[in-house]
Specification:
The chain has a domain of 68 residues. The protein is α+β, with helices and mostly antiparallel strands. The protein has 2 helices and 3 strands.
């Protein structure tokens, strides 16, 4: 009976691809940048779907207040690599600049009326 091989210890996964970022050439000549302040994550058994958009009135998330401009569809494997890359990047940012407060009420300076 053949001996089963155990998988090697998992190395840290590169951001989103198979090659380390330092050796991956990325052509950004046709890249288009958009500002977003809204995203919606949905999915199906084989894939994740993220819609990105701009809420023209973030204080009131009513129907029609979000203009979705991009949809990205990818596998759960890519989603997990994306999650790891985002967690690492945010942890580095917080280590350098302090924690990111998600509660907007706590971020607003006292007395600010907008």
């Amino acid at each position: 009976m053949a001996e089963e091989s155990k998988p090697a210890a998992a190395a840290p996964s590169p951001a989103l691809g198979a090659a380390p970022a330092s050796s991956l050439a990325v052509d950004t000549s046709t890249l288009v940048s958009n500002y977003i302040n809204f995203c919606r994550v949905t999915g199906m058994p084989e894939e994740l779907i993220i819609d990105f958009g701009l809420s023209t009135d973030p204080s009131e998330m009513s129907a029609g207040s979000v203009i979705a401009t991009e949809r990205v569809i990818f596998s759960f494997y890519t989603g997990k690599r994306l999650l790891e890359a985002l967690q690492l990047t945010i942890a580095r940012h917080e280590a350098a600049f302090g924690p990111l407060e998600l509660n907007v009420e706590k971020r607003i300076a006292p007395g600010w009326r907008g």
